[in-house]
Amino acid sequence: MPNPRIKNEDHYQALLEKGYSKEKAARIANTPDSGVKGGKAKKYEEWTKKELYQQAKNVGIQGRSKMKKKELIDSLRNN
To answer: Are 50 and 58 in contact (CB under 8 A)?
Structure first.
């Protein structure tokens, strides 16, 4: 049964099959343009701190309110 919290269920399932954790697969599948090929997403370094904070909030990163921009980027990449 599809999870209503997952925005792109097909992409989520494909990531699980590749061995991604449920948390990481959900985070990727819930991002805007999920599953769209072409590398059009901006690099985190091009995001504002506010955008990074919101993404960290969306994926449940703890301690994000005290993080600097570089720390938010590192947490998003390694979570």
So the answer is: no
Domain identity same for 5 and 32: yes
Residue 22 CB contacts under 8 Å (≥ 6 apart), including other chains: 16
pLDDT by residue (tens digit) across 10-51?
Answer: 888 888 888 888 888 888 888 776 666 666 678 889 999 999
Rounded to whole angstroms, the Cα distance separating 78 from 75 reads 5
49-67 pLDDT per residue, tens: 999 999 899 888 999 999 9
Which residues fall within 8 angstroms of residue 31, CB to CB, at 6 or more apart? 41, 55
Number of domains within the chain = 2
What dihedral angle (degrees, nearest 10) is formed by the CA atoms of 56, 57, 59, 61?
70
Range of the domain at 27: 1-37
